[in-house]
Amino acid sequence: MPMYEFACRACGAEFEELCTAAEAAAGKVACPACGARKSERKLSTFASKDAGGKGGGGCGHGSHGGFG
Ligand SMILES: [Zn+2]
Question: Which of 10, 18, 22, 42 could be stapled to 36 by a disulfide with Cβ–Cβ 3.0 to 4.6 Å?
């Protein structure tokens, strides 16, 4: 059984509870602080990372000459 994070909508307490996904989605987990069953599952946050950037290269061309 997974552990979910909840935030009580009645008193604002945040807590973690082991419950099924269905229970978590239904918000039927009782708040340990006030006992209200108005918990709202907190969504885990993701850190997105984007990679980019491309470097360009060049080649030089030179001429040489001379007579000494
Ligand atoms: Zn509460």
Answer: 10
Model confidence pLDDT, tens digit, residues 23-41: 988 988 999 999 999 999 9
CB 30 within 8 A of CB 18: no
Strands 3-8 and 14-18: antiparallel
> In whole angstroms, what is the distance from residue 30 CA to residue 49 CA?
36
Phi-psi region of 60 (alpha: psi -120 to 50; beta: other; left: phi over 0): beta
Take residue 13 and report the two structure tokens written for it: 């307490």
Distance CA 34, CA 58 (A): 68
Q: How many A from CA of 29 to the centre of ligand 1?
A: 10
37 token code pair: 């069953």
